[in-house]
Recover the amino acids of this structure.
């Protein structure tokens, strides 16, 4: 009987994201095909031996035939722009063609802040054609220019994070109606990336366009792979921002697409700065994330927040929400043409 080749899965982490990665991997195993086989590559940005052991024990499973720890020299991406909650480990995915063994031609890349609710191994059975990657459109910034792409942009405008997530897209020759993807879940044609020097082009893109970069590696991936990626069902990457749309009418998607994305995600991506391991997180799927956490070597861990800091956080989020509402009202007025 022929033995199926294992599915190649790639994740990246540093010490800061080790615990959430354990949840990603545990939830992957809880939902994966019982007959599947997995070859797991962990791009290691400086984990301690103890953390490696805890991660390995957290995803102990007979379906994982091999765990390959691939140390990454942080100086490789040291000059690339970082800010906010973004970890330099987020750039490691662009190095995949260089650090993986030569016999690996196709992989599924997963971020470390995911909650997996369906069998992700099925993604590697999808036809990819000549697309250099498969990914899901970003619900927060769905197009290179949402004004150009959406027939009724003013309806969604108050809720879309950025009309132009790549501010200099016109200068780069990218048509505004093209969709923009989130890089947290990608089926990557590694052979194609090697053949077309995608890694080098991504780094060069970030270097040359440094003043325009928004959302770090995702900027470069969307620029370099514009017109060369294929769409996944949006449910394979439900970003946190989907809950900011009051209903499908204010979203950039048709009703059925929006409601299935919101109510039945295959993968929950905690893509906002506030993560489920933060005490102030109120995400709809946080309790489910905690249940998977308690099946890892970090079981029982819970975030704590000093009472005074909690009051400060609450004041911050109240102020933030008021500012958001004010900006939305202003945007609506502008859309109606009431401000001259």
């Amino acid at each position: 009987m022929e033995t199926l080749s294992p599915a190649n899965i790639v994740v990246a982490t540093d010490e800061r994201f080790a615990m959430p990665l354990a949840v990603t991997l545990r939830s992957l195993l809880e939902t994966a095909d019982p007959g599947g086989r997995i070859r797991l590559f962990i791009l290691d940005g400086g984990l301690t031996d103890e953390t490696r052991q805890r991660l390995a024990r957290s995803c102990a499973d007979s379906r994982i035939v091999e765990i390959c720890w691939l140390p990454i020299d942080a100086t490789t991406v040291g000059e690339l722009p970082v800010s906010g909650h973004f970890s330099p480990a987020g750039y490691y995915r662009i190095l995949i063609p260089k650090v993986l063994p030569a016999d690996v031609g196709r992989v599924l890349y997963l971020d470390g802040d995911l909650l997996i609710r369906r069998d992700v191994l099925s993604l590697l059975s999808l036809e990819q054609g000549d697309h250099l990657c498969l990914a899901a459109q970003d619900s927060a910034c769905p197009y290179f220019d949402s004004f150009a792409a959406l027939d009724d942009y003013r309806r969604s405008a108050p809720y879309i994070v950025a009309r132009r997530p790549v501010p200099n897209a016109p200068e780069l020759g990218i048509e505004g109606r093209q969709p923009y993807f989130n890089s947290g879940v990608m089926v990557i044609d590694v052979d194609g990336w090697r053949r077309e020097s995608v890694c080098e082009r991504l780094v060069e893109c970030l270097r040359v366009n440094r003043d325009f970069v928004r959302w770090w590696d995702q900027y470069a991936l969307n620029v370099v792979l514009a017109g060369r990626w294929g769409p996944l069902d949006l449910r394979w990457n439900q970003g946190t921002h989907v809950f900011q749309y009051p209903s499908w009418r204010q979203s950039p998607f048709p009703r059925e697409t929006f409601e299935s994305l919101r109510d039945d995600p295959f993968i929950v991506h905690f893509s906002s700065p506030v993560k489920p391991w933060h005490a102030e997180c109120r995400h709809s799927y946080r309790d489910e994330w905690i249940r998977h956490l308690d099946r890892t070597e970090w079981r029982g861990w819970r975030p704590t927040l000093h009472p005074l800091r909690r009051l400060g956080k609450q004041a911050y989020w109240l102020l933030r929400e008021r500012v958001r509402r004010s900006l939305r009202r202003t945007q609506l007025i502008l859309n109606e043409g009431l401000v001259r």
